[in-house]
């Protein structure tokens, strides 16, 4: 946190408006999307880290400068969607230039459900108090993009984002249905309770169930042989591929 606090103090001293910081972060993320589009994954990962520093500090700067506003929250949320769209559009361009229509489709559907995850929550919370269910929210997507970029396992990351985003949208639709009709949430007791906790996600971050999901996701991304996913960019067989080849 030390370098981030130093950047926050500098922005406060210069009285840089938090909305400007939000905009700069999105513009930098467009640079990451450009790097993804041309297969420069390591560069894209570095740019994403820089962009998300701005995404992290804008709220802190707004708090210290007493510039929090409803428009600021709207501005931040809206530009976050542009960042999501840009990164996935970059991947769609990359796979289209490689002639991989299968991954163009995977990335396009992941884009649709990533946006629908945010929309479903926003629309639900116009009807119910809170709809923070579903695992794959924006912080998880961004971290996964960085992991995919730095480890050259973007195809596996796309599959994780796609599947868990579909599940998150389904969770939010189902939760809103239950809340509007005064129905109880699915049971968390016994074997069926473990199933419900895994696939109807209501646990918070920094909990044991969350950490277990993270371990499972990272295992899939890092261990699955790229050949199994027909990854057009990754090299090497992956850990599972090495083990199976020796056996």
- What is the strand tally? 0
Order of helices and strands: HHHHHHHHHHH
Enumerate the spans where pLDDT stays under 50 for 5 or more consecutive residues.
Answer: none
Major β-sheet, in short? Answer: none
Polypeptide structure, described:
The chain has 247 residues and is an all-alpha fold. It is 76% helix and 0% strand. The longest helix has 28 residues, at 70-97.
List keywords for this structure.
single chain; 247 residues; globular
What's a concise summary of this model?
The chain is mostly helical. It contains 11 helices and no strands. The chain is globular and about 60 Å long.
Per-chain topology:
Layout: H1 2-13, H2 18-37, H3 41-64, H4 70-97, H5 101-124, H6 138-151, H7 154-180, H8 190-199, H9 208-223, H10 226-229, H11 238-246
Helix pairs in contact: 1-3, 2-3, 2-4, 3-6, 4-5, 5-7, 6-7, 7-9
């Amino acid at each position: 946190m030390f370098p981030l606090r130093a950047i926050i103090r500098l922005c406060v001293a210069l009285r840089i408006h938090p909305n400007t910081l939000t905009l700069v972060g999105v513009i930098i993320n467009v640079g990451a999307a450009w790097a993804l589009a041309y297969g420069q994954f390591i560069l894209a990962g570095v740019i994403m880290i820089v962009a998300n520093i701005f995404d992290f500090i804008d709220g802190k700067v707004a708090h210290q400068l007493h510039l929090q506003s409803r428009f600021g929250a709207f501005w931040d949320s809206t530009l976050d969607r542009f960042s999501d769209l840009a990164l996935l559009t970059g991947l769609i361009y990359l796979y289209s230039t490689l002639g991989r229509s299968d991954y163009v489709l995977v990335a396009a559907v992941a884009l649709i459900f990533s946006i629908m995850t945010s929309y479903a929550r926003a629309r639900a919370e116009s009807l119910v108090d809170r709809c923070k269910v579903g695992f794959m929210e924006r912080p998880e997507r961004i971290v996964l993009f960085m992991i995919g970029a730095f480890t050259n396992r973007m195809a596996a990351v796309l599959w994780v984002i796609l599947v868990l985003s579909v599940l998150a949208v389904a969770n939010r639709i189902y939760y809103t249905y239950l809340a509007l009709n005064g129905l109880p949430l699915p049971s968390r007791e016994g074997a069926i309770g473990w199933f419900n906790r895994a696939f109807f996600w209501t646990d918070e971050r920094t909990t044991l169930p969350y950490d277990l999901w993270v371990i499972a996701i990272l295992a899939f991304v890092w261990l699955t042989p790229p050949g199994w996913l027909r990854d057009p960019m990754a090299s090497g067989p992956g850990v599972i591929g090495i083990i199976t080849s020796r056996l």
